[in-house]
Amino acid sequence: xxxxIVRFGLVAVVAAAVVVLVxxxxxxxxxxxxxxxxPPVVSGPTPSPVPGATPGKLAYGLHGHIYLANWDGSNPVRxxxxxxxxxxxxxxxxxxxxxxxxxxxxxxxxxxxxxxxxGHLVASFxxxxxxxxxxxxxxxxxxxxxxxxxxxxxxLDGVRQKLLTVPLGLMQPGDLxxxxxxxxxxxxxxxxxxxxxxxxxxxxxxxxxxxxxSFVRHSPDxxxxxxxxGLSLHVAAADGSHARVLVRGEVDAAVxxxxxxxxxxxxxxxxxxxxxxxxxxxxxxxxxSAGHIIGFxxxxxxxxxxxxxxxxxxxxxxxxxxxSGIRHLVTGTDWGEWQPLSPAR
Length: 345
Known about the structure:
This protein has 345 residues and is mainly β.
């Protein structure tokens, strides 16, 4: 399956079902965007990075193995057998999560492996699905134990802390995975409703102010959301209030910068970035037939993304937020992530 879970379609039937799934205890007027197209993108050497402003190590999966390289893909070192999709690094940049084994792609059932940044195994436990989701404090991971039925929350010691049952009828078929909310107090999953910590009957049906949109992306501080209604990209307060149009036109996917001041988004085949306060949009580069956005560098000056060529071969690339400095990193994969830079580092 070539699609990635980070990609979101704009199909109305699907959009009508996306809601927030709470799985743990939890103590303006519209305006159009001004479009500014950046300079022509030309492959080739890029300027030397500013010291201290580059991302951490690049982790990626290739042909059933996990590699660590410099941020620009140079000096790769194979550290483990494994594969996966979505998030690899823990938010503090200390650990990696991936599916064990040496297959050429992620599996719907297998073994979750947690390793340190050198590839030494820390924990392993069974799981299903395509993504393994880290909690914001880097102390827990969540994965399906049984697809669409039960979700396991595990500690770094590999011990299961919770087994949460999803009531029948709340989850629809599909390649969907739970992810943590920015505050770590809940998990967010498509096609679900609110589930009490004891796994009892949901107190309310699926829905809510953000329930009719094709994707909802929380800002890193959890105070705002970005979402698409199929016609425009909107930003709003976390509860859906004070919404405003940020970019007019269809948007396939979006990711926030760590500072929350920019959003990178994709159209049908192009990567763009918008300055949230001003609404100024800059076109960066083409994504190809099946490319997708991965994320910003910790300093917010670069974006990591993938491209897929006409032969179906993926590759990892980076570009600066003004559209300059496009750079090819790795060929043969579209799964990778830059190491977060925690305050301790």
